[in-house]
């Protein structure tokens, strides 16, 4: 009877469960491709088992270490420069008392999150393109030489990090603002009575109040160190910057679909998944030992 009483909640939960079953768990059957010389016509049952042949080829491929380095470096830069931005924004917005100003700022910084990477990449190309980008047209009008923002290896990673921060900072700010609303306001009142400045209040009340949220998001972010952002890079990069921008997921896409090396790229993807799991596990264990906050 208790189950029937909560039937509406189970119905609402069903689409989410089906989504993960169909797109996350059922496809795991195809992991076996990594241990076979998979032929589409023969299927899983008819393809020859080759053990760790493709993993051996993976670690003997010099270019694999290039894409692994690119993946870790780009993800680390995004984490290093992007992780603090929503925290700073949330702390600043938490001090705004004019509702109209607060809602305006919220709308402006939240909007990019709801844009697809296809739209963001189109905007980036329109603004920073070497030939006819708005910024380079302005520089040429002033008499300066155009800058190859998106086709120069020295600047492409910077453009990736900046566009990722611009698109994702608003969503992170929502999470931290929600955590800030849960802090007891009497703590701020007591701090003001004791003469604490705004910065002191942020440091001793606001930051400890959102520490659990910060820890959980950091743990989840660790799993992305070897994944990168497939859509962003695929839509923005070109062969001119493959050496500094090609990551594991774009490599799997190009080699797996372009050259139909399905077994080899499945081995690459399985390696990526295992490393991501280990990073999340280690980060969670470290966080639990140091501060007591963890996902499990």
UniProtKB/TrEMBL annotation:
GO terms for biological process: transmembrane transport. GO terms for cellular component: plasma membrane. It is found in: Cell membrane. Residues 68-283 form the ABC transmembrane type-1 domain. InterPro entries: MetI-like, MetI-like_sf, UgpAE/MalFG_permease. Keywords: Cell membrane, Membrane, Transmembrane, Transmembrane helix, Transport. The keyword Transmembrane applies. The chain crosses the membrane at residues 12-33, 40-59, 79-96, 108-130, 203-226, 262-283. It comes from the Bacteria. It is a multi-pass membrane protein. Its main location: membrane. Belongs to the binding-protein-dependent transport system permease family. This is Sugar ABC transporter permease.
């Amino acid at each position: 009877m208790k189950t029937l009483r909560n039937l509406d909640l189970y119905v609402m939960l069903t689409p989410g469960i089906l989504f993960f079953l169909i797109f996350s768990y059922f496809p795991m059957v195809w992991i076996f491709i990594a241990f076979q010389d998979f032929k589409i016509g023969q299927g899983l049952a008819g393809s020859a088992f080759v053990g760790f042949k493709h993993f051996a080829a993976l670690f003997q491929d010099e270019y694999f270490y290039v894409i692994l380095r690119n993946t870790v470096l780009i993800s680390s830069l995004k984490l290093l420069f992007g992780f603090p931005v929503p925290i700073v924004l949330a702390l600043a917005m938490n001090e705004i008392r004019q509702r109209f100003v607060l809602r305006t700022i919220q709308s402006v910084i939240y909007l990019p999150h709801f844009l697809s990477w296809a739209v963001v990449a189109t905007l980036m190309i329109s603004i920073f393109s070497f030939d006819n980008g708005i910024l380079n047209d302005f520089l040429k009008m002033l008499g300066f030489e155009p800058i190859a923002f998106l086709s120069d290896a020295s600047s492409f990673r910077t453009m990736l990090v900046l566009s990722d921060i611009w698109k994702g900072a608003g969503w992170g700010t929502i999470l931290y603002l929600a955590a800030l609303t849960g802090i007891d306001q009497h703590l701020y009142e007591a701090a003001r009575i004791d003469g604490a400045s705004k910065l002191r209040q942020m440091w001793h009340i606001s930051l400890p109040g959102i520490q659990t949220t910060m820890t959980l998001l950091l743990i989840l972010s660790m799993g992305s160190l070897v994944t990168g952002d497939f859509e962003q890079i695929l839509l923005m990069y070109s062969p001119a910057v493959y050496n500094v921008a090609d990551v594991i997921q774009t490599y799997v896409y190009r080699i797996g679909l372009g050259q139909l090396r399905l077994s080899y790229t499945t081995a690459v993807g399985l390696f990526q998944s295992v490393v991501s799991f280990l990073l999340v596990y280690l980060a969670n264990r470290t966080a639990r030992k140091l501060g007591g906050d963890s996902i499990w």
